[in-house]
Amino acid sequence: MSIPQGTASPHVHLRLRGALVGHRRDAPLFPPFDFELCAGEWLLVAGPNGSGKSSFVLSLMGALPLVGGVREVGTPGLRFGYVPQRPSLDPIWPLSTLDVVRMGGAPWHRPFRRDASLTHRSLELLDEVGLGGLADRPFRALSGGQKQRALIARALVGGAEVLVLDEPANHLDPIGERALLDTLAALHAKHRPSIVWISHRLDGLLHRADRIAFLDPSGVRVGPPDRLRTEGVLDAFLGEGAA
Amino acid sequence: MREISFWEAAFLWRDPLIAASLGAVLCALVGVFVVLRRSAFVGAAVGQASSLGVVLALLAPHVLGASVPPLFAGLATGAISAALFGLSGRKGRLGVDAAIALAYVIAGGAALLLGTLLPHEYEEVHGLLFGDAVSAPIEEIVALAACLVVVVVAFAAFFPRIVFASFDPETAQGMGLAVGRTNALLYFLLGLSIAVSTRALGALTVFALTVIPAAGGLLACRCLPGVFAWAIGAALVAAVGGYYLSFVWELPTGATIVVALAVTLGFAAGIGRFRR
């Protein structure tokens, strides 16, 4: 999706005003900034290693409280699905792929209630990420790419409006990365979540993103890829690889 | 004189056997999470924390001039220490394993040191901490049954959250699950169960019951419900079978239950190898 210019504003899921991100108010990672996350957009969060991309996104999600400024939620009960950078999932757990996907409903599980549709939704999502025949296979027996797709299904099964992926292509070869992007594009077309993709590189991703939030110690700059390129914000980055 | 048979001696073993069975199921249930979270030594550390609580309660009349029920103090310190293990994994700079080891050595050392101030209460301290599964007062059975109800109700209410927070805490936190509180709840249940069971069955038996049945379940079964079912079944069989054998062969009860548990582990390993 592209954010239309000059037309009715898209729905804003989340708004940060005068935000200070970090662990200490006297040492924020960036100067105060304003930011909006729109419904259905594909946002690329980029910046050099150690620039605070994960902290920025954790603050968006509310998992890392702001040390200054205001976080306003525009969508009541906004749900985040999260795919971590390096999931440390212990193979001792005797869980099937379906069990792991069903886990995504846990944050919204109501005590003593059984969500009868959770298994159905999990199986549907497994189909959509291309793991339809592997629901009963032990999760620990899946390949790295298959695990990644199962975790994306888990992130969406609870009905997340925002899907956050932390460096999801780090351990994939170019073919695996392209397959992952295609899967995400299909999921995006069907479920319309906002996608927040954290990456320390831009090659192969610029044409997918509606906007980029580029982070470095000088500040948080947000805009469409073309504008940030025109303004030279991405020059140093793009010099390292192809866009 | 004719020897009394096992069945004729039912008045002797009925209550201890009920206590052993309740304790076995309780330890097996919480033990699955103990093993899956690789916190096997939590049982030993909780035992030491409980001992410190009992010693402090017995010292209270001498130091504060007020009495504190020792059994309650032991249960409270055991349960609270276990809850702190849960929080230490997320908020502390030490991992859970280091927190468990620290609790074991510090609480153990403090209990030993302070215990020297209570030479006349030694038997009471020992009895409160390391019951031997041979006798079981009714209040012990009630405490075990109440604790089992609490654990079953808490698992029924929060099982999906506990599993998610245990299996993948980073993602669970990112998706809005209160991982710290969920861990604290789980470790509180662990501490409560271990402290209550230790009083009834003895420290070694409880340590074995929290680890061996769950380990057997993981070897023999391929799904989480299967692991729970195996753990509960093996713990019950070992508790009842071990109790019976210790009675008829006049063996130490706790040690016999531990050996029976080891036999179930052997079966589990055999099944696991066969199914591979």
Summarize the structure.
The complex is a heterodimer of chains A (243) and B (276). Chain A is 28% helix and 21% strand.
Strand residues, percent of chain B: under 5%
**Oligomer type:** heterodimer
Report the radius of gyration of chain B as a whole number of Å.
19 Å
SSE pattern of chain A: EEEHEEHHHEHEEEHH
**Uncertain ranges of chain B:** none
Strand order of the largest sheet of chain A: 5-6-7-3-8-9
Relative helix content of chain A = 25-40%
Mean pLDDT of chain A: 87
> Into which percent range does the helicity of residues of chain B fall?
over 70%
Question: How much is the average pLDDT of chain B?
Answer: 86
Structure description:
The complex is a heterodimer of chains A (243) and B (276). Chain A has 243 residues and is an alpha/beta fold. Chain A is built from seven helices and nine strands. The longest helix of chain A is centred in the C-terminal third of the chain and has 18 residues. The N terminus of chain A is likely disordered. Chain B has 276 residues and is mainly alpha-helical. The longest helix of chain B has 30 residues. Chain B is globular. The mean pLDDT of chain B is 86. At the A-B interface, strand 5, helix 2 and helix 4 of A face helix 6, helix 7 and helix 10 of B.
